[in-house]
Amino acid sequence: MPKGIRDKVVILGMGCSKFGERWDMDASDLMVEAYAEALTDAAIETKQIDAAWLATAIEEQHVGKSAVPLAVALRLPFIPVTRVENYCASGTEAFRGAIYAVASGAADIALALGVEKLKDTGYGGLPQRGRGTLNNMTWPNLSAPGSFAQLAAAYRAKHSSAPQDLKQAMAHISVKSHDNGARNPKAHLRNRITIDTVLNAPMVAEPLGLYDCCGVSDGAACAIVTTPDIAKGLGKRDLVAVKALQVAVSNGLEAQHNSWDGSYLATTRIAAKRAYHEAGIENPRDEINLIEVHDCFSVTELVTMEDLHISPEGTAIRDVLDGFYDSDGTVPCQIDGGLKCFGHPIGASGLRMIYEMYLQMQGRAGERQCKDLPRIGLTHNVGGFPHQNVCSISIIGSHGS
Amino acid sequence: MTIGILASGAYIPRLRLARRAIAETHSWLNPALKGHAKGERAMCNWDEDPVTMAVEAARDALTGRDRSSIAGLHLASTTFPFLDRLNAGIVAAALDLPDEASSLDIAATQRAATSALAAALAGAGETLIVAAEQRRAKAASPIEMAAGDGAAAIVVGEGEPIARLLASATHTADFVDHYRTAESTYDYQWEERWIRDAGYMRIVPPVIGRCLDRAGLKAADVKTFCMPAVLPKVANAVARAAGIPDAAVRDNLHAECGETGAAHPLVMLVAALETAKPGDRILVVGFGQGADALLFEVTEAIAGQPARLGVKGHLARRREETNYTKFLAFNDTIEIERGMRAEVDKLTPLSAMWRNRETVTSFIGGRCKVCGTLQFPKSRICVNPNCNAVDSQEPHSFADKIGRINSYTADRLTYSPSPPACYGMIEFEDGGRWMMDFTDIDADQLAVGQAMRMMFRIKDIDTQRGFRRYFWKAAPAEPDAGRA
């Protein structure tokens, strides 16, 4: 088992644009909005950045291919810039590139930026991405809600859950995220809703209604990372460090082999275990203070509570309904509104989760600040479909803790 | 050895459009349509066409039979989706017939199927004759009411036939009762009374006479007379003129199916075989620019046919459709707003299709020779995490397996010509699974564990390039109920 990158890299500065329907903004404007905040926060100049990573998933809707759009938007001084794409987990992938560069010593200061401009499609909901010539011939025309909705069918069958109990817990998740989003000035959706709003909403993909689905947003998020020593040398105190970053990618087992029952994300379970090992966490339910998960749909959040080994398998409905993950619960989940309400500009989402951890650990989260400063937080970023996906998990914590 | 019919099968789409739905919509224009508003007509689902129906009819006929002995495939239709691409070639690939088998498209007349049948019975090895039709019709036209979509399949050859050929006769005449050209979308049809008097009544009885003479039999020896005719009572009038007893005239399935065009003589023949007794003599007539007559005698072997759905079983596999606009939309008779999600271009990569033809058209996956794991699609490295052997897979067909729903959804966001799009993970009991489209299912039938069978369907239509892609979908597996 490799030693990992625990405490080798710290966050020097972060920024995040307002998420939402940014009709007056191009992707490059959103990039600069997030970057300007991160640069000010890091208190460095552009010329101090040694390498950069750009995450964007549906580039054909905005910037096009390659890392050039980032280099141009930020006027990066001819440094190495790489564009990464790994479905909706692209943002964490960019972060991984940057922290690995710093951890390896190849860069002193590295930048990761994720951006997505989704509201130039002409219709609501995520646009369909290309699947490749052969997959087009055999895959259903599956949408994101249609693929994640299937978790509900398989979960109910496995745990003999009553459909109304599951739907109730899913509704609780969405109501909680709207409450949290209402306290976040950068969130896309800031309206509070009720359980009935969720239960009576039009159906999108059985059993997911409109309010079981996250927002489709424009936005960007940015991280500047360095070593603990360099950060201290720049006068930074109370450093927020990367404790672990793990990625697990489906290899066709879930899609082709009957050992997967469809009720969970196999990748999340594996990535979480590896991340806990890397971070030295033995009991996540007790040791983790705050989580930001990939709540693309309410049911995804629900099964993720089990896949992260925080709720024992088959008990997520109970934990959710008990308020365990509410903003005043034991392990608040989506304190910033999550994908559901902060919004989901795909390439930015993984970095936005880390941004929230960073703010919360420094006590800078404003109206939504957790009363006790979280010391250990987890972000969970998934891309693809439950039966074939990319899962990234980061563990963020105060340096040295 | 005797030459004759070795097996038979049929396919009628599950959807049945109530004729009153058509008549009521058009009563402002043509109140006379109300007179034809009884019963229902079979209609293709959006993902069915003559090719997919032909595959299903052929699979029905081939129930329990070894396909490696098929030496030829004759596909008859006047509504082939492709004008220059062998439609029978698609059917042969979907059926995984031997590459050495010949394939022919036979077109351009309503008697295409009977001519194909007669040619095959002249002896050219074991031949699969399939006829399928999906006639397009202008809204409010008589043919829209009278027609139905459907297919039938017959295996002929030497051996122990369920019905042996006694004799056949034919007649060619450029009698144009209706026509359609390369430039026209719809049929142009002449007056029905003229078709009856100058067409059927003049052309058919002499052909029947010659056929009976060749068999050395009398008209009274005919037990069942199968002759499609959309005009009422024409079959009875022809029978009377030929001396065939009125009781022998077989119902043309107008009430529950409609006239399946070039496929209809075979659909009627297959339906007749389903209730026939050994010794019965069945006379089949196809009419169109002349006429074909074929006379069969049913043998004792009829009782030994393995159970199949046939015409009767497929008619029982029925869902009433009363929404006429759905029929218009499925047939492209009206231009409907499909939304921007329908604009996604999935391209038509012909080389990749050819390379992956076993996966896509034949639904063949792999079986690992090392660990025995089944998987779809086949891959270079075995999916079993405890095996992962390289290049260990032999071809393994999934087309005739029954799978079960592992997870599902009814999706109203994604583009589908008939929303909601129902799809999910299908798991095969002996190994293998795939995330598949479902078809012929209503959202309230979706349940984990539901048994599903595989059907060959249109996957999607490339409207930019005028191409249609086919693949396999999962449909609810009926229990043996309704089998003929």
Give a short overview.
The complex is a heterodimer of chains A (401) and B (484). With 401 residues, chain A is of the alpha/beta class.
Structure write-up:
The complex is a heterodimer of chains A (401) and B (484). Chain A is an alpha/beta fold. Chain A has two domains: 10-119 and 218-233, Thiolase/Chalcone synthase (Peroxisomal Thiolase, Chain A, domain 1, 3-Layer(aba) Sandwich), CATH 3.40.47; 144-215 and 243-398, Thiolase/Chalcone synthase (Peroxisomal Thiolase, Chain A, domain 1), CATH 3.40.47.10. Helices cover 37% and strands 18% of the residues of chain A. The model of chain A has no long low-confidence stretch (mean pLDDT 97). Chain B folds into three domains: 2-330, Thiolase/Chalcone synthase (Peroxisomal Thiolase, Chain A, domain 1, 3-Layer(aba) Sandwich), CATH 3.40.47; 347-357 and 401-476, OB fold (Dihydrolipoamide Acetyltransferase, E2P) (Beta Barrel), CATH 2.40.50; 364-397. Helices cover 23% and strands 29% of the residues of chain B. In chain B, the strands form five sheets. Chain B has a nine-stranded mixed beta sheet with strand order 5-4-6-7-1-8-13-12-11, sandwiched between helices. In chain B, helix 2 crosses helix 3 (87-94) and helix 6 runs parallel beside helix 7 (234-242). Chain B is globular and about 75 Å long. The model of chain B has no long low-confidence stretch (mean pLDDT 96). Chains A and B meet through helix 4, helix 5, strand 5 and helix 9 of A and strand 18, strand 19 and strand 20 of B.
Oligomer: heterodimer
CATH topology grouping of the largest domain in chain A: Peroxisomal Thiolase, Chain A, domain 1
> What's the end-to-end separation of chain A, in Å?
22 Å
| CATH topology label of the largest domain in chain B | Peroxisomal Thiolase, Chain A, domain 1
